[in-house]
């Protein structure tokens, strides 16, 4: 049976119900994210690079860009912000809608405790001041996927204010230097999400799915302290990691759990700020960076050619790589903010203000939540650097790639190899194969146990480094064999017979007298050539260090 959906008929401004089967509706949404990401429902390593390459802009020395972000994160909660409806991604349309979500007369909001705790925890992690008293407001605007005609938000007195977010931008010729930067956080507020409008171009109609209506959101408003797409992308990625570490939001951008609006303007240094445009609903870190950089360049080109910048809302077309005008904002919309009459002020407590004998289930203690804060990404990076002696940029990579840190730690637990060798193999070989195949860490055919066994074979000098790469390549073929089985079947063990190796080195020196002459003349390439010839003869089963030692002894004698 086809799923019921609310149909919005534009001209008459009325609601009707429609049944839509799987093939009768062509869904079209704002093109702000990667199509492949939406289909797969997860982010891959290669699809979401952290940094973007900045190209010199025309007239860049004369212009300064100002970027501010509004970030909407869906709270990880079993139910919605003001109703008991379940929260579940990709549920059948309009199957998770309560009477309150549909705004039926006589229904009242009931605040979700979990959402409030998530907001407090996020505020503490972002160095915010938590307001012990915050207020809810109604923000009125008419849109099809907002049945009540208003959104419950926190305009006047939000739950958290005046925070900061520190992130690192890679710099230097090889992007090996991490420069810390900080962006101020103006406020964090609780608010309702809206439903989804699904446009049917074939029938010239819009279908409404209210499953998302009323889901709890954290709106994190950043001050305009950013200046380019790279800074915005790294700041959002850092916030995403923090939310995931806290468990306050899954922050999966492919599922719409983290959406970004970017406000962008350009001006001459020393002059007033320019007219800003807003690029809405960016749900990919990569496209966030591209959209901001494109919009900065578009505004510069427009002003240098004698045009003017309109105060408007724009969207980013990921296929064309450009922003497109949606609607102008010159006539500022009056949202008619008013206090929410059905919700009292939200009062929080700390250890000093907690009433004596208060029921813990009826109050929220800020200090108690502070004590439960987990290890944040910045602390994790410091621990990795100190514990394993890795470079800071390596710690950034481990955290930025989804699931990579857990993979690394599991390998460390099971191997005797040095942490630096494990780091090198995970970040170079393992991550390189993932990027070539466009796979997520969870899709890897090589398990942490298999890599740990391979590194043990290498560490015990059972195989050479070249043979180890060959074994890893075999592991990637998903044939279900262990590293030990592969080494045995392909006879990749290092030669243990030193006498046979000495005889082989002697034969090679006799067969290549010119190379030996070059070696006596202290030609550095000669020794490497002889080592290569011996290894080729042993099918890479000889240890290069042992070959070099034998050759040097024979030359000295």
From TrEMBL:
One Pfam family from the record: GatB_Yqey
GO-annotated cellular components: glutamyl-tRNA(Gln) amidotransferase complex; mitochondrion
Main subcellular location: mitochondrion
GO molecular function terms attached to this record: asparaginyl-tRNA synthase (glutamine-hydrolyzing) activity; ATP binding; glutaminyl-tRNA synthase (glutamine-hydrolyzing) activity
Domain of life: Eukaryota
Region (Disordered): 26-47
UniProt enzyme class: ligase
UniProt keyword annotations, A-Z: ATP-binding, Ligase, Mitochondrion, Nucleotide-binding, Protein biosynthesis, Transit peptide
Cellular localisation: Mitochondrion
GO biological process: glutaminyl-tRNAGln biosynthesis via transamidation; mitochondrial translation
Known EC number: 6.3.5.-
Domain Asn/Gln amidotransferase: 406-555
Compositional bias ranges of the Polar residues kind: 32-47
HAMAP family for the chain: GatB (MF_00121)
The protein's role, per its UniProt record: Allows the formation of correctly charged Gln-tRNA(Gln) through the transamidation of misacylated Glu-tRNA(Gln) in the mitochondria. The reaction takes place in the presence of glutamine and ATP through an activated gamma-phospho-Glu-tRNA(Gln).
Family, per entry: Belongs to the GatB/GatE family. GatB subfamily.
UniProt subunit comment: Subunit of the heterotrimeric GatCAB amidotransferase (AdT) complex, composed of A (QRSL1), B (GATB) and C (GATC) subunits.
The protein's name: Glutamyl-tRNA(Gln) amidotransferase subunit B, mitochondrial
Organism: Cercocebus atys (Sooty mangabey)
């Amino acid at each position: 049976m086809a799923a019921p959906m609310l149909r919005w008929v534009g001209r008459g401004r009325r609601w009707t119900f429609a049944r839509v089967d799987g093939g009768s509706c062509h869904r079209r949404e704002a093109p702000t994210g990667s199509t492949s990401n939406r289909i797969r429902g997860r982010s891959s390593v290669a699809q979401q690079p952290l940094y973007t390459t900045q190209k010199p802009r025309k007239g860049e020395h004369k212009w300064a860009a100002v970027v501010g972000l509004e970030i909407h994160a869906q709270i990880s909660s079993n139910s919605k912000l003001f109703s008991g409806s379940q929260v579940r991604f990709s549920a059948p349309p309009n199957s998770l809608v309560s009477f309150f979500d549909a705004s039926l007369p006589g229904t009242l909001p009931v605040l979700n405790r979990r959402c409030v705790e998530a907001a407090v925890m996020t505020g503490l992690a972002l160095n915010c001041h938590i307001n012990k008293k915050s207020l809810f407001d109604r923000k009125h605007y008419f849109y099809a996927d907002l049945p009540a005609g208003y959104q419950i938000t926190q305009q006047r007195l939000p739950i958290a204010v005046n925070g900061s977010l520190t992130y690192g931008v890679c710099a230097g010729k090889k992007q090996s230097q991490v420069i810390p930067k900080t962006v101020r956080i103006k406020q964090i507020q609780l608010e309702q999400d809206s439903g989804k409008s699904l446009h049917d171009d074939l029938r010239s109609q819009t279908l409404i799915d209210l499953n998302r209506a009323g889901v709890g959101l954290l709106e994190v408003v950043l001050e305009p302290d950013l200046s380019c797409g790279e800074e915005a992308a790294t700041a959002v990625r850092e916030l995403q990691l923090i939310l995931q570490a806290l468990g306050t939001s899954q922050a999966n951008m492919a599922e719409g759990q983290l959406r970004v609006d970017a406000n962008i303007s350009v001006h001459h240094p020393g002059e007033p700020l320019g007219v800003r445009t807003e690029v809405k609903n960016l749900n990919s870190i990569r496209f966030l960076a591209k959209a901001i950089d494109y919009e900065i360049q578009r505004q510069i080109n427009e002003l240098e050619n004698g045009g003017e910048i309109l105060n408007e809302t724009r969207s980013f077309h990921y296929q064309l790589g450009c922003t497109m005008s949606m609607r102008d904002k010159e006539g500022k919309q009056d949202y008619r903010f008013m206090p929410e009459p059905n919700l009292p002020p939200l009062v929080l407590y700390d250890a000093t203000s907690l009433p004596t004998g208060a029921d813990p289930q009826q109050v929220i203690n800020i200090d108690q939540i502070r004590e439960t804060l987990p290890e944040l990404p910045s602390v994790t990076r410091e621990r990795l650097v100190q514990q394993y002696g890795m470079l800071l940029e390596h710690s950034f990579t481990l955290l930025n790639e989804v699931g990579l840190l857990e993979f690394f730690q599991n390998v460390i637990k099971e191997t005797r190899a040095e942490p630096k060798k494990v780091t090198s193999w995970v970040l170079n070989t393992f991550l390189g194969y993932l990027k070539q195949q466009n796979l997520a860490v969870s899709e890897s055919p090589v398990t942490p146990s298999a890599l740990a066994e391979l590194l043990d074979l290498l560490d015990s000098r059972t195989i050479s480094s070249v043979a180890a790469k060959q074994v890893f390549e075999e592991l990637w073929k998903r044939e279900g064999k262990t590293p030990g089985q592969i080494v045995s079947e392909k006879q990749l063990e290092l030669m243990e017979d030193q006498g046979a190796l000495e005889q082989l080195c002697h034969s090679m020196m006799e067969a290549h007298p010119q190379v030996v002459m070059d070696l006596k003349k202290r030609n550095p390439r000669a020794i490497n050539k002889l080592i290569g010839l011996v290894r080729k003869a042993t099918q890479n089963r000889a240890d290069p260090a042992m070959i070099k030692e034998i050759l040097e002894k024979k030359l000295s004698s």
